[in-house]
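Hi Y.,

Following your request, here is the sequence exactly as I used it, all 206 residues.
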Amino acid sequence: MEKIAWENTGIKPLDEHTFLSWLAVFPEGCLVALDGQEKLVGLVASQICAFDPHNPDDCQKSFDELTDYGHLVDTHNPHGNTLYIVTNSAIYPGAGYKLMSALCDLTMELEKKYCAGACRLPDLHKAMLNKDPNQSDREFAAAYVQEIGGCRYRKERRFGPDPVLSVLARYPDAQIYDVVNCFLSEEDAQSCNWSCVMGWENPHSN
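Below is the corresponding structure, written out as tokens. Let me know if you'd prefer a different format.
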């Protein structure tokens, strides 16, 4: 499933060592989605950490810094305030959305304040072809995120739906906090290495 999910993205599929690390560190944060034939069609992994999506300093931290290069050994903290999404990969329509919903449920169950993570922008590279040369890459990425993530369907809309952002932005009360360049150790050519910090705040948290 991982090979199919990340095919042609430039992102390496999950290796066995990383998967076993997730199960050893925080098995409750690893969830899967199955289709009607009990076939694996989605996978999500998360950790608990101290992370405030309203804090620009937290948002600007790299994925490697936040997740111990994806292994979670040194970054998972059961006493943290946030369920932080490490990966959400799916090969079936709707699977990623349902996994996001399951993590929000887990956030409430664990009584954490936020469910948050960095959202890829896989169609940004197409939109970048029409970027004004006087506009910085970050400014353009921010405009892309604001329009698509804000679900603004206007006649003069410049960008089409993004296969990841458009789906996750539909989740009730989902918020976009910042646009960041957080993937350092692994190039995400489709997203031009940009992402947006998305999150959901637990309405029952203090």
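The radius of gyration is 16 Å.

Thanks again,
Q.
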